[in-house]
Amino acid sequence: MMETKKDWASRLSPGVNAIAPSGIRKFFDIAAQMDDVISLGVGEPDFVTPWPIRESCVYGLEQGYTSYTANRGLPELRQEICNHYQKNYDVTYDAATDVLVTVGVSEALDIAMRAILAPGDEVLIPEPCYVSYQACTTLAGGVPVAVPAKIENEFRITPAELEEHVTERTKVLLIGYPNNPTGAIMTRKDLLAIADFAEKHDLIVISDEIYGDLTYGDEEHVCFSSLPGMQERTILLNGFSKAYAMTGWRIGYALANPTLTAAMTKIHQYTMLCAPITAQIAAVEALRHGEKYMKKMVAEYDRRRRLIYDGLTKMGLECFEPKGAFYIFPNISSTGYTSNEFAEELLKAEHVALVPGSAFGACGEGHVRCSYATSIDKISEALNRIENFLKNHKK
Amino acid sequence: MRELLELLEHDARRPVGELASMLNRSEYEVEKNIKDLEKNKIILSYNTLINWEKFGDDTVTAMIEINLTPQREVGFDAIAERIYRFDEVRTVYLMSGSFDLMVIIEGKSLKEVANFVAKRLSTIEGVTQTRSHFMLKPYKKDGTIIDDEERDRRLVVSP
To answer: Where would one find coiled-coil regions in this protein (chain B) (predicted)?
Structure first.
């Protein structure tokens, strides 16, 4: 490491200093020493992007599609996105004014926050939640306000819980269902209550629906902007990473009213210019012809979900049966370990990697996140190892 | 039932307990389903896809296109039966197009396969012509890529 003579840390922006470093770094370093690690710690599909989608990108390169695109994204991609929402959720978006193609949902979330937050504006964030919600809020000058969700309520959030945290500075409600890390979903009834709450306090709702295609069982995903009166106040975020196994392509989008979309586009055009054309071409193919591959992957996740839920439950760990995404969030507090200790000891003793629940907000303490985006064989073996660990390690 | 069949087609050695969990059925039910499928000849056999070349065997595979004169009453079926009863014959399909039967043969050597075609197949009454194609390298068989080097390239932990 380079010796630093000056106090560089004091020169960093307050926003950066306010953000806690990632809690999962440590596990990388331990796992790097082992060659037989089974990882349930990965937040992305184990599938490779379906071949026709990859092939369309290769073809695009052969044809010389290597230039910038319009700031908002390729017109045909924006149109396909609108068609998708019309067909699946009966929501009408205008490809010319309501769509912005971004470099993954991560960018969309960042610019949404920067487009709407003034210093000190508060953002209600139900927890446990994806790790960048708080950080993006803080970096944009906002104040993240955690609203803990409870396992007794299947990790869904209620207006009553939100009401407890509303102040006059509350400007935004940021929700992410199906949820990473809990696998929770919100039913239409649950969301209608949230819609009333948003209306009552005149909030902008940012709805991260990146796992929207990955739901299991009878409850189908409900798109927040499809609820009566909600489209105008919703910034809907989605992308291709999870449903089409395209995480590394970095391609997502934001859907919002023309004013908000124009504001986000302003930031996007000066910072990102446009999303990579290669990924945009692949995304068009995903929306046009990718559905059958997506359905096949969802069916496979569903089988793994049942296997891992059965396995963990039989070991005596309290679990909420996940209804979406590809995570399960068992309660490990009966072992006497904190989430962090559990994850570290399990990795050292049995070479199984997972993520401590506390990484997803304070109320995630006592839980760990297991991803079932890995093969059945590996899940089975990981379950054996966890069972073994539980037998030998009671604090 | 389709889902069970697809799982077994992909991996017939999967434990019944796992299948039961994945399909949300009891083990008893899954076992009974499998028995029924076997009884009704929907499941015909459980095979293993082996890379014999890697094991060290130098087997020879040939695809033989055969033209036939169809016979009254039975069409191609009787001749097809005479052909598929040979152990050397692994696969027989009735085809549309410029030939009638596609026969896949495995043998220990080029000579053995050539002998089989010349002495056994082409001498069958009704066989008017054979064309042999020897397989040089298999890339994919029954849905399995032979030298699949796709590995997990993901980071061990990610949010």
So the answer is: none
